[in-house]
Write a structure and sequence with these properties.
two-stranded antiparallel sheet; Kinesin; Kinesin_motor_dom_sf; elongated; four-stranded mixed beta sheet; 12 strands; alpha+beta
Amino acid sequence: MAAGSIEHEGPDMGVGDFVLLSDITMNAFIKNLKLRFEKGRIYTYIGEVLVSVNPYRDLPIYGPEYVKSYKGREMFERPAHIFALAEAAYRTLKQRSLNSCIVISGESGSGKTEASKIILRYIAAVTNISNQAEIQRISNILIQTNVVLEAFGNSRTNRNDNSSRFGKYMDLHFDYKFDPIGGKIQHYLLEKSRVVKQQLGERSFHSFYQLLYGENNLQEYGLNLKPEDYYYINQGNCCKVPKIDDRNDYQQVKQAFKIVGFTQDEVSIIWKIVAAILHLGNLKFTDVDGEHCSITRSNDKNDQLKWISKLLSCEESEISSALTSRVVAARNEVIQARQNITRAYYGRDALSKALYERLFEWLIKYINKTLSRENNEQSDYIQRAIQSSLVIGVLDIYGFEIFDNNRYNSTF
């Protein structure tokens, strides 16, 4: 796409706003969308709605010259672009002192998460240069949180190698000078069932594979098996994906942890929990008499219960009791009843999903603490400012998928 195309789109580029189509039919809509895509125009308006087509390649349309072209402009002064949408939200904030929200929706793999990153980068680029250090701090943290949250909340699906398996809502807080002073992230509907089960051709969350392929000292976590030998992550039969560099991604996540502010001990605990879940997936039970069961033990270095207790800092007896028995409250009595092998496996999977969900929630909480600077000496001022601040919200809900055979959780 030539630099001059910022200013003008000729008729050979199709119609830049579907509202202006003379023939309002599905065929005309698709024909115009296809024509614009073939000409390198991935954005088209429908009034104030922006339609984006994922090109699955880098386009030179997000550089400083494009930021400058859209800064301070009305939405329809320039060709359709995500910068125009972000600018419209920011102008609403500045000119009318109104909060706004950008909702990003679409199929899995349509580029929603990338769109949210582009919006953040644009807002960081156009805000007050006099407060650039603070703006850069918040922007950098938000960008690095994407690295962390993608590792722990994204996975490979049959449609997308980096599919968000949770919904994310980000609040960007602005002070009276319309400079970012903080942010907050909320998450929705983490697909925790993916921790223990995946469809053929899909993977669990990236974090498991990043640890196994990226960590040089796996013995520290008792991970002595090949990735494809861990039950929780091998059911999709695609532990290794050609287009995903888990080893490099692991290093990026470690660097992101550092930038966001996690301590070395906290990072170690995070990966210990991930490793413990991998061990839980390989934990097996032995049927005793049809009604009772016990944990199958081994005397070698791959004893799962030993490593689970070590990584979670629990006693082996506590874990064994929690998985092979249950507490029943009856009237004024509390009875500990033994579980059969089927219930024990259900309990194991439930524990694994709960551990991962709690870990994910803790990551979000920690990130929000960093964004709001609760640990900073200026926290009182920042907190008061945030309470009266203006907000731009960005909702990035995970994409929907439609197959011949669909799962219940695909409908959410």
